[in-house]
Prior knowledge:
It contains two helices and eight strands. The longest helix has 13 residues, at about 45-55.
Amino acid sequence: MFTSKLFxxxxxxQPQRVLLGMKKRGxxxxxxxxxxxxxxxxxxxxxxxxxxxxxxxGLTVDTLQKMGQITFExxxxxxxxxxxxxxxxxxxxxxxxxxxxxxxxxxxxRVPFGHMWPDDVYWFPxxxxxxxxxxxxxxxxxxxxxEYTLRQVEEV
Length: 156
């Protein structure tokens, strides 16, 4: 029987560029990713997204647009990851390295998909086009997608 844990992911997008962070430790270390993490007891998913963005990048935002939700299954792990994905086009502060993430801007035509999670190449274009989506990815280990579904939706 699977259980599920809530996570957030925030992508900061500006015209022609996106802010990613190099994960320095923990799950996903060595990969470029958005900013996010576990939803803690007593906080909403959106509160967690704001907190994680601040902790990992030093940025604050007034508003977040919820763009998608993806459930991840890793073979052999009975806990599913339910990831709520947000986008923001404006922010306050300067991206600042934390003990967990090193932020860097990438031009949209130079997003380093080869150094990101393998699923990103599928849903990232939808987020950049401001299209809402839901998905499911089943991984063998950390690098192999065994199966997936991804669809555009009217609301998330």
